[in-house]
Amino acid sequence: MTAFLSWRHTPWLVLSILSLISYASAHMIEVTASRKECFFEDLHEHDQMTVTYQVGEGGHLDIDFWLTDPENNVLTKHVRESTGTTSITAEKDGRYEYCFSNQMSTVADKMVSFNVHGIIYVSEEDVIAPVEREIRSLAIGLTSVKDEQEYIVVRERRHRDTAESTCDRVKWWSVLQALVLFAVVAWQVYYLKSFFEVKRVI
Question: What is the pTM assigned to this prediction?
Fold first, then answer.
């Protein structure tokens, strides 16, 4: 009877554990020219955090990114990247800050989508049931799949914008070629006509 009650309450226990050990968030921000945007997460020792980002619009689709620990030591730094991911395991309690910088640009604003997800550390003594460990791994895998899907959406939108821009350029280039062709034909007709004209001197 005891085993039956334990199994019956396992789903609720698992859901409670997942709500405690994992977190995730997705954001879309605009980083204006010559500015930077910074965010932070308060972590405890052995907590894990992963940040993934993708530049969707603006300039050369590049951004500077760095992540610092509570003592302002740089843990990760990316320079002029269009997409990236970084994962850390907190070595000490404190506030971990990550920034997106567009200070290299003086004109173009950038649209950046990013995801932050992490795992709150739980010691092996606290995680007893194997099914709980499996569901924890499953939660991490699902978060990774979600990040990849969002990356694909942003990439598809960027490629679609590029294709539409290319089509517009081809269209206007064709119009310009047609106008130049008509102008050249008109000039040739006029020149040949004037060449064969008979000039009479009275």
Answer: 0.61
